[in-house]
Amino acid sequence: MVRDIVVIDEAKCDGCGQCVTACAEGAIQVIDDKARLVSELYCDGLGACLGHCPQGAITVQKREAVAFDEAAVAQHLARSGRQSQPHSSPTAPPAPAATAHPGCPGSRFQNLTATSGRHPGGGCPSAAFAQFEAGHSTPPGPDPDNTAAETPSELTHWPVQLRLLQPGAPALQNAHLLMAADCVPVAYSEFHRNMLRGRAVVIACPKLDDPDGYVEKLTEMLQIGDIASITVAHMEVPCCTGILRMAIEARGRSGRNVPLHDVVISRQGEVLARREVPFTITN
User: Fold this and answer.
1) How far is CA 168 from CA 196, 210, 219, in A?
2) 170-276 adopts what CATH topology?
3) Residue in 79, 83, 12, 77 with CA at minimum distance from that of residue 50
4) Residue 45: left if φ>0, alpha if ψ -120 to 50, beta else—which one?
5) Under 8 Å CB-to-CB from 32, ≥6 apart: which residues?
6) How far apart are the first and last CA of the chain?
7) Cα–Cα distance measured from residue 236 to residue 249, given in angstroms and rounded to the nearest whole number
8) Full DSSP string of 197-262
9) Residues 6 or more apart in contact with residue 13 via CB below 8 angstroms
């Protein structure tokens, strides 16, 4: 039959998983870091997920598809540990489905071994809870006021938040700039020694921050500060790559072929990848 059904543009999707929790029928899951329609049977075509996609990757299109099946949805939700909701009408948006585990499906507990830190899919990868074995003994370290054994900080300026640091700050003049996602310094134990040393730094969260103006500010930093190089450090979860996209766009707008290096950190604090990003001019 020809009917309305959800269509997901995988090129735009960053795998944030917000559409997963918005779909009361459980028709969408994050698989291989992309939101996907798992079955046409489960999609009612009303588009409750549309307003929950920050990338605009979801549309509702009229095309040939199998008919929506409420009974199949109820069975699907039961297998997922979720309760079936009454089918909604176009004038009444579907209520969020109750779940056996309240909150985002991606926040359910995972107890990971040292080699299983990757997100298995379902919900937002960045919100998926994981517990790791620390690389040292269980007792906590020294109290914050015990400075006898502290390693000196490599931080050379303040502020460090991208929203607060001005493009003309003296620390940015001819600097090697480190752009770090907020979680990187917490996850990566060698952050000061292996990343921050010898660099100016800005930090931001591409998922939780309001990024309006970030690209413009970075472009200005590149032009005014005559930045020598950029190193972008972000977590492995898909939405965290937003900070890399900001850097790439700002570099393209500036017209300056500044060396740009991308470093990916796992949720267990390992360096997963390093690469140099080719230069592309952005109009």
Assistant:
1) 20, 22, 12
2) Rossmann fold (3.40.50)
3) 12
4) left
5) 121
6) 43
7) 20
8) TT-EEEEE-TTTS--TTHHHHHHHHHHHHT--EEEEEEESSGGGGHHHHHHHHHHHHHT----EEE
9) 34, 35, 53, 55, 57
Q: For residue range 185-215, what is the model confidence (pLDDT) as tens digits?
A: 999 999 999 999 999 999 999 888 877 789 9
Residue 245: burial class (beta carbons within 10 Å; 0-12, 13-18, 19+): middle
- In this predicted model, what pLDDT tens digit does every residue of 31-53 receive, in sequence order? 888 889 999 999 998 887 876 68
Q: What tokens does 158 get?
A: 């303040």
How far apart CA 283 and CA 243 sit, in angstroms, is 19
In the numeric block, which tokens belong to residue 152? Answer: 């000196």
Question: CA nearest 198: which of 162, 229, 237, 233?
Answer: 229
Collapsing DSSP states into helix, strand and coil, what is residue 136? coil
Class of domain 1-87+105-132: alpha beta
Q: Cα dihedral sign for 165, 265, 14, 121?
A: negative
How many helices and strands, by DSSP H and E, does the chain display?
A: 5, 9
Residue type, 240: C
Question: Any idea where the domains of the chain sit in the sequence?
Answer: 1-87+105-132, 170-276
